[in-house]
Automatic annotation (TrEMBL):
Transmembrane segments: none annotated. CDD domains: GST_C_Ure2p_like, GST_N_Ure2p_like. Keywords: Transferase. It holds the Pfam family GST_C_2. This is Glutathione S-transferase. Residues 19-105 form the GST N-terminal domain. It comes from Phyllobacterium brassicacearum. It comes from the Bacteria.
Amino acid sequence: MSVLSAFAISTRWPARHLDRLQLYSFPTPNGVKVSIALEEIGLPYEPHAVDIGKNESWTPEFLSLNPNGKIPAIIDPDGPGGKPLGLFESGAILLYLAEKTGKLIPADAAGRYETIQWVFFQMAGIGPMFGQVGYFHKFAGREIEDKRPLERYQNESKRLLGVIETRLDGRQWIMGDEYTIADISMLGWVRNLVGFYGAGDLVEFDRLKRVPEWLERGLARPAVQRGLNIPKRP
């Protein structure tokens, strides 16, 4: 019996490669964090598309792995101590993969914690704020006559971009010369903000210098280009 058979999610998204890490995701800014990291690391994995447009993340099988009903989630059949591990929350998964492989995170303790703080910065600020800009600027929130909610998230997103702009002064990546999970956590969100959400003018993205250059460097990486399209949309 496979160790994956103990996870109910495998009944809806069965694994063909039982020895590989299983990724349950969709190509959203949160989802691509993990596929990009896996592509950068080179760890064998099997992706499964969880179609959030069809509410598949709210099915009993997916909720059995992530009770919060959000992608991405993983099962590592070779987790700590050789035992299978199911994990959700993109930031936690990034940290797990980095520590499991010793890649995409500094080896020294100070650098490690500094990297983690920037991942938390993304999780607490960039993701929620940029997502709200998308809702009020592009999606159903556009129909709300009161524009104060949009203005709040617009201004906060501009401020957060300014924090990144300042951080990148004299640095190629968030942690300097070393590309890490801190960069991976942010790339998809900044790309979405100015691309899919079409909010570049709204947040005055062209007035920045270092963030656009950082984004261009990141998107030019082959692993990033691959990861942005994994899993493939149905």
